[in-house]
Amino acid sequence: MSRIVTVAAAQLGPIQRAEGREGVIGRMLRLLERAHQRGAQVVVFPELALTTFFPRWYCEDLDEADAWFEPSLPSPATQPLFDAIKRFGVMVYLGYAELAWEPDEQGIVRKRRFNTSVVIAPNGEIVLKYRKVHLPGHAEFAEHRQVQHLEKRYFEVGNLGFPVVRAPVAPGVDANLGMLICNDRRWPEAWRVLGLQQVELVMLGYNTPSRNQDNRGFEAHHLRVLHSHLSIQAGCYQNATFAAAVAKAGTEDGHELLGHSIIVNPQGEIIAMAATWDDELIVADCDLDLCELGRNTVFNFAKHRRPEAYTRLVEQTGSVAPAVWTPSV
Ligand code: CDT
Fold it and tell me: CN hydrolase domain: which residues (predicted)?
């Protein structure tokens, strides 16, 4: 017996800085409706789906950035999305900027900001929350950059780990669900933590600039796409999971984000890919039983993993130079 879930990647085209929540939510509602018409049971939206990719804009006072954050979910602005989720009976991955009042590591309750995603059940309840761990970019205005990437300014490092939950996704089908956000997809450690919890569907959204500003040399556009796909395909194969990886794409206020959203199977094959850099839906039937092959053979973790040889992975952050060998004569 197969366990098929129909998954939609709901890619969003650009959101300009001046565009309000209402317009964006309207576009998302249209994608949700089309996803429902095409039989989708799970719909994945991008990272920070409700606004422009605001970490490109510098605010000296962090509170000035609050308009880009959601202090609650649902909020008056996002309520229509939750209503549509219930109406269409679909499960949704939503990336957004989260503003939370909660205790920090010292136990002091303060305003905290995270780059967050949630899985919303067809009844509107939050099934799972994830806060982005691998924040790229920088915290201070960088003079040498034409475009800022201020994720380290606006967000704290996620403090929820990489959770996986088993939840109903289709009639008679439960799935092990996990999440990543954008830059996380480049880190095999993140995928493996999900794999160790038998994840079957990784949902991830991204906002990836077409140009690598950290590389003062040249990195061809096609390599940016290759690196995105390579990371996702390897993550799926090595952890025997499906993934839906969804872009916010196109040109936002003159700054280009790549598209190329994909759905990938546990063999690492791309089974659907977006062709535009605009609002676009791609849909694939994912038989979750296909995760069994990798999980029980090459990547049978219980049989083949050697954690005693991996201590560096958790004890060391940066790389160190290796011991030097010199010829004896
Ligand atoms: N949003 C996000 O995480 N973007 C990063 C840009 C990194 S620049 C190499 C990404 O990994 O796509």
Answer: 5-288
